[in-house]
Here is the input.
Amino acid sequence: MNKFWIILFHTYLNKLKTKSFIVTTAITIVILLGLTNMNRIIDVFDRNDSAEKIAVLDETEQLYEPLKTAVTALNKDLKLERYEGDIAKAESDVKEEKYAGMLVLSLNDEKLPEAQFKAMSIADSTVYADIQTSMQQIKTTLAASQINLTPEQLQKLYNPVVFEKIALEENAKTEEELNQARGLVYVMLFIIYFSVIMYANIIAMEVATEKSSRVMEILISSVSPVKQMFAKILGIGLLSLTQLAIMLSISYFSVKQNLATMKGGFFDFFGFGNVPIGTIIYGVLFFILGYFLYATLAAFLGSLVSRIEDVQQMITPMTMMIVAGFMIAMFGLNKPEASFVTVTSFIPFFTPMLMFLRVGMLSIPVWEIAVAIGILIATIVVLAVFGARVYKGGVLMYGKSSTFKDIGKALQLTKKE
Here is the structure.
């Protein structure tokens, strides 16, 4: 048993000290800090930029002031400035970058406002979109006055419809609870997806590297291949937990510091609020089970190849299964009750992501969770037993090996021992 722990900690410490581990961890931390501080970063650049100035040629002599008021309410950084020159002079000033753009205001035959916006580029949609929105408000107000609508009547037209959503199912999550859960589910799905792909690939590469350097011939003479396989799986597993602990701790404190500014768009849809502790526990559980499922699969697939170049080809079907599960989970974020999501959540290779999605987003019976976890654990056990036999024979195979026919050869070598 001592040899098992020696291999486990040797695998863990060797990978922990590699440049690739340190560099990827550092780069990931920088990216995470950038994402969680995105609002502050944008504010720094916005603070250094001068406000956008738009030259306004008001041919109507009545639209400039109400438009300026409406635009300021939408975007304080967008400055409208009345322009006294002609259109040609305004175009020249825009080309010389004295203004970000120019706006010509006029009335059509129905005495309703029209506008023409000119700029060196119209790629920045936020500039003209805010102006267009303000023009629409002014047009609606003028049209209402032409048909003698009072301000009170116009306000009634603008008032949003009352639309209350109530779930009749017992213990069903409210909209607020769904938003709170969605954030954690979304993050955990990415963690499960990338971790399984990355660390399963590391395990397969580790086995193939040792075989290509003939180190395996020395190892199998002193330690059984089965102990080697599980020692490597647990060693890489500890490595993944170390890396995730570092990244999640930094992300947690960074998000906590910036939570007050994380509003609108992404943060409204994927609300990060008070998530039930049960959801977090299920997330950790399905992450661990998913790791062991694919790590065991990757270990015996890696044992079938003796060249590092063949590893990717051998584990491609496994990678495709992970990708398929992730794509179904992304679909399920908006439709977690879909029959397709429900059925596939019981398929063990999809269970870590899809059942966790359903647990986080829905109130499902405990027996469904228990059945899915039972199937997943049973699959891991079967895969571990079968994988250990394949691994035991696979580590003795050399030469070009990149097809699944080699599984049969590996099993035959195992029986001969």
